[in-house]
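Interim report to the steering committee. The following record documents the input for Alpha-galactosidase (520 residues).
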Amino acid sequence: QRHNIGHRNERRTQTMPQPHPICVPCGLLLLAAPAVSKILLGTPPRGWEDFDSHTQASYNETYARAAAAVMAEEVLPLGYDQYIIGGWSMGGQVDDQGIPVRNTSKFYTVLDEYGRPVPDNVRFPSSAVTPDTCHCFPRNCTDPRQQTCTDPVCVCPEGARSLRPFASQVEKMGLKLGLWTWRGVHMGAYYHKLKVKGTNYTIDEIVDQKPRNCGFGPWYPVNASHPGAKYYYDSLYDLFVDQWGIGFVKADCEDTRRLDEILLQSQAADKARGGVYLSYSPGTFGPDAATGQWVSLHQAATMYRITSDFHGGWGELASDRGSFTRAALHANASNIGLNGSFPDLDMMPLGQIFCDRYGPATVDDPKCDCMNCNGGGMAYTIASLWAISRSPLLLGGALPLDAPTMSIIGNPGFDLIHTHSRNQTVIAFHQPNISCKRCNQTGWQVWKADLMPNQLNADKALMVFNVGDSVDKYFVTWSQLGLQPSPEQRNHHANHISSSSSSSSSRTICAISVDIRLCC
C-alpha cells in the first residue's frame, strides 16, 4: 500500500528499487535554518511540470486531472507535491467545437477585464464559474514593431473564469496546483486599454515602451516606476495565490536588466495571504553569480533559472554555458540555498518527453517523439548533478513515469544528497572541448558537500563526474575533503569511474563515500 503524504517533511516512506546506488557517505553536521517569508524559502520544491512532455495543442482538463491522479499515486509519496500546468490553460489552439488543433491561426488568449490571464473554459470547463459571456477580439496587426500579428484575445468579466475548482480537485489528491505564466502584460490588454484593478490607470499607461517585448510571446514589460505597475502585480498575485489557491508560480521571460520589475513581482507574491513557491526563468540569471546573490539578498524568489531550456543531451550538460558550468559557478559563489533561494537547472527531462505531437493523448497512451531519450547513464548523470547542486526537482517526463525513472528518483542516495547536502563546492573541474568529436579527452567535475544529520550518519559527500571521453583515474586527497584519515585509510583511492564513448548519451557517474568505497 502506497501512502499519499501531504506534508513535505514526512515524505520518503516508499521503498523503491536501487539498481545503481548513487551515494554512500559518512558522519553529521548541523546548520541553522534560514528565515521564511510568504515566498516559500529554504527548501527546493519538488513536483511535475507539463512543458517537456505535452504540447499546447493537446492539453486539457481531462488529461490534467488524470495525470494529477497518477502523480498522486506514483510520486507524491516521494515528496513531489507541486503539479504545475502551463500557460496554455489560459488559451490555446482549438476549433469552434473545442477540439485541439495544430493551427496557429486558431490560437487565442483569455484575459479578465483587468488584463490578467484567466483559464479558457473550452480547455478547462470547470473554470466557467459564472455564465457571463466573454467578448473576443480579432488579432492585431497594427504594431510596426511586431514581425507577426499578435494572437486574438477574449476578455471576460472579473470572476467569470477561475482555476479554483481545478485547484480544489488537485488539493483533494494531496497535491498543490502550480502555474506557469508570463512577466508583464499581454499586448491585447495594452491595445484594448483594459483597466488596472483598484486604479484609474489603464494597461497601456503602465507599459514600458522602450525595450522590445518578450522574445517568445506577446507580452510587454511594465514600467516599474509607474504607480499603476505595483497595483497590476499586486492584483495578479492576489488572483493566483489567494483566490485560486496556486502554490507555485513560474514567471517566464524575466529580464535581469529589469530587476525593479522582478522586485515588484516578488513584493506582490509576498503580500499574498498564502505561501507560494516563486520561480523565475529563463536562464538569464546563470552567467553572473552576482545576479543570483541579488535574488537571495532580496528574498525575491524560491528559485531562479541559470540555464536555458534543458531537454537533455551531453552538449547541453557539458558546454561552456551548460549545466555543469553554471552549477559550478553558482556553487563556488555559495549561492546554493543562500538566504533560502536556489539556482535552478530546469526540469529533469527523464522518461518520455515531447509527447502528444499527433493529437490528444491519454495517460495510458502518450504519443511521444522521445521515449527515454535521456535514459541509462545520462539519466543518472542528470539526477546526480541535480541532487548535489540541490536544484529544484521538477519532473518533465510524461505520466506515468517509466520504471527506470522511478528507480532513480526513489533511490535513497539521490534523496539523501538532495535533502541533506550543504556547503557545496566544486573542488576540480577540467572541461573538455566538446566540439572535438574524436579527441579522446579527459574531463572531470568533482563536488564535495557537508551533510546535515541523516539516517546514514554521514557528514561528507563526494561526487565525481566524468565529463570527458576516456576512462581514467581520479585521485582525491583527504585534505581536499577537509578530513584527517586514520592510518589504514591513507592509501585508499577510486580507480573505476568510467564513461562510455562520446557517441553515446550513456555516461557512468558515481558518488563516493569519504572512506573511498566505490558505490557504482
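Residues 96 and 106 are 9 Å apart (CA to CA). The committee is asked to note this result when reviewing the revised timeline.
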